[in-house]
Write a structure and sequence with these properties.
Structural class: alpha+beta
Shape: elongated
Strand content: 25-35%
Number of strands: 24
CATH class of the largest domain: Mainly Beta
Helix content: 25-40%
CATH superfamily of the largest domain: RNA polymerase II/Efflux pump adaptor protein, barrel-sandwich hybrid domain
CATH architecture of the largest domain: Beta Barrel
Largest sheet: 6 strands, antiparallel
Distance between the termini: 43 Å
Radius of gyration: 44 Å
Length: 393
Amino acid sequence: MAGRVQFFSYLAGGHPMTFQRNIKKVVLCATVLILTTPILFTNAVKAEEEHGDEHAENLVRMTAADRERQGVETIKLVRKELFESLSAPGEVGLNLYQTSEVTPRIPAQVLIRHVRLGDPVKVGDKLVTLSSVQMAEAQGNLIVTAREWKRVENLGRKVVSDRRFVEAQVAAQQARAKVRAFGMSASATSKLVASGDASKAIGAFALYAKQDGTIMRDNFVAGEFVEPGRVLFEISDETSVWVDARLSAGQSTRIQPGTPARIQTSDGSEYPAIVLQLRHQVDEATRTLSARVSVENINDSLHAGQFVTAIIQTGKTQPLLAIPQNAVTLMDGSSQVFLLKDDELTPVPVLLGTTYGEWIEIKSGLKAGDEIAISQVFFLKSMILKSSIGDEH
């Protein structure tokens, strides 16, 4: 009420001429306000629409050169056959067809160890030097018989009877075979015979590697007395290892020797493999059957005793639409894939189906011929999230 009184007092101004001038000012202001109001309203609406478009934009624009620079790879979808498979827990073990044990054939004492646990060895490498009373006796006998045979041979059959000639020859051969059977190498045997020195028949001899591989076991100490058959070394070629996969009775009927497989470790690494054998006896404790799977040990990454997962193929699917699992990301509470069209990568929701190894079936959301990103998906997702966070502020 007070405001109205002040307004009319302003108009009156206390004088007729003042009243007329004030009326003209009010009319002029009203006219300007009426003319400019639509323009201001239009600009406000336009600004709001543009701002709304920025919020509505949910894509990443990248040219082919940009995608290559950022490592964003894409593929076009086609229907394809995928392998069905089963998974089973397994444990890595040595390939027993590429493993050997080194043992003495006679009682002996350990003199010198030449290799240690974990050392790589080649065929013919010296592993350990032993000493044996039996070997010393056999070496002495070898020297005696070798000398006798050399004397008889020099005399010849014209001087020596056939029987004596043959007996001397066989005795020398048997003496040589005996020290070789006890573990003396061929070269060491020949050197001993050539020397003819009985003082060198001290019973020392060495054991050598019979295969390439790695020392997996060496449980003995220098000076220890070992009996025949005692395992001094275990050598294994770890370029190929076995996995003992534990299967249920139902699973075992779905595979056979020669079936392709993959071995997956706890960090997600996978290695190609193949089923070698199926055991036909159920384990009493676990009530499972064992499948022996052979796997190429790439970069020496698998070791005996390591727990893994065996993924064994059991068949093929009908042609279906599938994408690599790493192409899928979770956005707005749903599984989404980045669809490429006209250098624009747009996340689209998809309905996922069955997983087949590294691939997953697409039930809806994509069609054959669509091009999608299969790498740097997290980077694309972060670009959109960053943009949306910037818009909010």
